[in-house]
Amino acid sequence: MLELAYVREHLERVKKSFHDRGLGGAGLDEFMARDQERRDAITQVETLKAERNRASGEIGRLKKEGQDASALMAQMKETSARIKQLDKRAAELDQEMKDFLLTVPNLPHQSVPVGRSAADNAEVRRWGEPPKFDFEPKAHWDLGPALGILDFERASKIAGARFVLYSGLGARLERALANFMLDLHTRKHGYTEVLPPFIVNSTSLVGTAQLPKFAADLFKLEGTDYWLIPTAEVPVTNMFRDETLDADQLPLKLVAWTPCFRSEAGSYGKETRGIVRQHQFQKVELVKFVRPEQSYEELESLTREAETVLQQLGLPYRVVALSTGDLGFAAAKTYDLEVWLPGENGYKEISSCSNFEGFQARRAGIRYRLPGKKKSDYVHTLNGSGLAIGRTWMALVENYQQADGTVVVPEVLRPYLDGIERLERNR
Fold first, then answer.
1. I need a surface site. Which of 70, 105, 228, 261 has the fewest CB within 10 A?
2. How confident is the model over 240-276, as pLDDT tens digits?
3. Is 262 one of the catalytic residues?
4. What CATH architecture does domain 4-101 belong to?
5. Domain 118-423 belongs to what topology?
6. How far is 388 from 351, CA to CA, in rounded Å?
7. What are phi and psi of 284, to 5 degrees?
8. Active-site hit among 295, 323, 352, 385
9. Is-same-fold flag (4-101; 118-423)?
């Protein structure tokens, strides 16, 4: 969340941010008019209170001298009513402004490419070469069912569209990928593993900026203040809500495996085949809490750590810097990792690595304090998928498919599958 004082003092920069994100004015002028009205109301209240204080002294003097103070008392009764009215209006305006600030997106970092959409994203680097097949490669939605490891029909019977049922080696591969990723990030990259609740309250979602703006993208438990998590970012970031960390704890690096639940509002008709866009999926999430001067260095290392998963699995990918028009609401800068999918003959996003600077920390009240200092400041928060497991599953199956319909298991995963070297039917 941006602070009111910052918006007031840097209005042109905020307007430019809105323009670069393709949002137009988005109510900023009206917001500033409300701010001025609120400030005028507070000034009037202070003036009237000073006037009332002076009048109270005068009323006391008149009564003491036996003079008639009724006219002045009647005037002060009107003044008190006016003060009450202005106080109420100032409080209403204050709440309106707080509500509006919760809908204002973060300011893009100066290094973010300016653009209107994903078409304006900037490719940063590539790793690996897409495999060359001497046969027509299949998509995972054909390979999986043919191997008996992916079942869309039974999932639809159980829950409906945009769900999938893994079975046999398909389920084991999903679990193997999660364990491989967790081991890599904890043993090699220095993350501490946590297993958070999969249900959170509204305050947590406000803290990480899913609420109030993106309620339609979430699943709410009827009759409660509970929501299913859209990503582990929400519970893990909120572990330290309304806390002040010691500077020597930073950077604090946490990793979590969780299921994720998303309504995918507005996406119907898009990517309906396969497991690209599901209501439920599993993900390993990386979350960092860092000092502000470290945050962009930490974004680069976070991205590299997510890339390591793809490199060890031997999956070709590219890194792109998102443009202002494609940047997430809370992010100041984001790198997307896009893995190669032979079945689609193109790259597909498998991880977003973002620096939120102090945006989430201000909403969630997460601070840090330097040793010997009384004053605290907001931490910078970062997170990224390390990786989305379902999309890694489909990328692996498609890139390692063989002409006979089997799938070779990358060597690094074989210890997690009891040495199995190939996915075959009825294994």
1. 70
2. 999 999 999 999 999 999 999 999 866 555 667 889 9
3. yes
4. Orthogonal Bundle (1.10)
5. BirA Bifunctional Protein; domain 2 (3.30.930)
6. 7
7. -105, 120
8. 352
9. no
34 catalytic residue (yes or no)? no
Nearest to 42 by CA among 95, 91, 79: 91
| Helices and strands, counts by H and E, the chain | 12, 17
Specify the amino acid at residue 245.
L
In the residue annotation, 263 being an active-site residue is answered as no
CA 280 to CA 349: how far, in whole Å? 17
pTM of the model: 0.91
Helices (H), 257-388: 295-313, 359-364
Q: Which of 96, 271, 349, 424 is catalytic?
A: 349
> Is 349 considered catalytic here?
yes
116 is catalytic: no
| Whether the Cβ atoms of residue 305 and residue 185 lie closer than 8 Å to each other | yes
Which residue matches tokens 């703006």? 213
* Distance set, CA 69 to CA 50, 72, 77, 83 (Å): 18, 5, 12, 21
Reported as a single tens digit per residue, the pLDDT across 89-130 is 999 999 999 999 999 999 999 999 999 999 999 999 999 999
Catalytic option among 262, 362, 363, 367: 262
